[in-house]
From TrEMBL:
Annotated PANTHER family: ABC TRANSPORTER ATP-BINDING PROTEIN (PTHR42711), ABC TRANSPORTER ATP-BINDING PROTEIN NATA (PTHR42711:SF5)
Keywords carried by this UniProt record: ATP-binding, Nodulation, Nucleotide-binding, Transport
GO MF annotation terms: ATP binding; ATP hydrolysis activity
Cross-referenced Pfam families: ABC_tran (PF00005)
Family, per entry: Belongs to the ABC transporter superfamily.
Record flagged with keyword Isomerase: no
Protein name (record): ATP-binding cassette domain-containing protein
Lineage: Bacteria, Pseudomonadati, Pseudomonadota, Alphaproteobacteria, Hyphomicrobiales
SUPFAM superfamilies: P-loop containing nucleoside triphosphate hydrolases
Entries under InterPro entries matching the protein: AAA+_ATPase (IPR003593), ABC_transporter-like_ATP-bd (IPR003439), ABC_transporter-like_CS (IPR017871), ABC_transporter_ATP-binding (IPR050763), ABC_transprt_ATP-bd_su_PQQ (IPR022467), P-loop_NTPase (IPR027417)
């Protein structure tokens, strides 16, 4: 089945489908039989505390690590069997910043486009479009060092969009940002979903980044404890407050903790 093939339910396959993935570092399982989906045209929040396994999962999806168990499909392409097809359909913003501070915004984007084999004039057009998508077209000639943390993140998103991906992966992109920049970044990514129909997997430990229309995957100690709509997470965690529901699902709500310490 390829990206354009409808599933048996008549719906296009999700942007990302992970099934039964386990990954260990020595004796320690960082991911244990993880299955999840990130639909197209949707914001999927991968929520987990430190050490939950979010970055390990991103490393497997992006092929920094080889997935030896289960399967990972991006727009219908298995990352092991069709890595070039799968990788060409995803854009990634890693947790640590990876822009060259001494180069201009445009130089950073053109360098990345060259790595993707995009010709110079096509790269310039793609970079200008991507920068306008994140509201930074006027900063193209500025050195990255002159930008704020939030603007640097938006340049990284523009860079991830250069080759026109259908799936955008962001690993804790708001780390270190102030509230205003955090909100702006979220708004921009949600706008990309609405305008372009891309699927987004957004890793975070901040439940206040979740909105009511989002999909949620609760990851804890390498296991998916719950996934579904915000309504389903609230029902599962028996709380109208998503944060409280999440803590109850992972067994770290006040009641569970008091049972442990009793
Ligand atoms: N290269 C590695 N070698 C050994 N253990 C690792 C390695 N990378 C991650 N781990 C362990 O795997 C588990 C999952 O880590 P991971 O970084 O994927 O979690 P995370 O959810 O991204 O957390 P954080 O928010 O702190 O980045 C943790 O227990 C971590 O210590």
């Amino acid at each position: 089945m390829n990206a354009d093939t409808p599933t048996s339910a008549g719906l296009p396959e999700a942007s990302l489908v992970v099934k039964g993935v386990t990954h260990a570092f020595g004796p320690k399982k960082a991911l244990d039989d993880v299955s999840l989906e990130a639909p197209s045209s949707a914001f999927t929040a991968l929520v987990g505390q430190n050490g939950a396994g979010k970055t390990t999962l991103f490393s497997l999806i992006t092929r920094l690590y080889d997935n030896r168990s289960g399967s990972i499909r991006v727009l219908g392409h298995d990352v092991r069997r069709q890595p070039a097809e799968a990788l060409s359909r995803m854009g990634v913003v890693f947790q640590s910043r990876t822009l060259d501070l001494e180069l201009s915004v445009m130089q950073n984007l053109l360098y990345h486009a060259a790595l993707h084999g995009i010709g110079r004039s096509a790269a310039k057009r793609a970079a200008a479009t991507a920068l306008s998508r994140v509201g930074l077209e006027s900063r193209a000639k500025d050195r990255v060092r002159a930008l704020s943390g939030g603007q640097m993140r938006r340049v990284e998103i523009a860079r991830a969009l250069l080759h026109g991906p259908s799936l955008l992966l962001l690993d804790e992109p708001t780390t270190g940002l102030d509230i205003g920049s955090r909100r702006q970044l979220l708004e921009e990514v949600r706008r990309l979903i609405a305008e372009d129909g891309i699927g987004v997997l957004w890793a975070t430990h901040l439940v206040d980044e979740i909105e009511v229309a989002d999909r949620v995957v609760a990851l804890h100690k390498g296991r998916v404890m719950a996934s579904g709509s915000v309504g389903e997470i609230r029902a599962r965690g028996k709380s109208e407050d998503v944060g409280a529901a999440f803590l109850r699902i992972i067994g770290e709500d006040d009641e569970a903790l008091s049972r442990v310490s009793a």
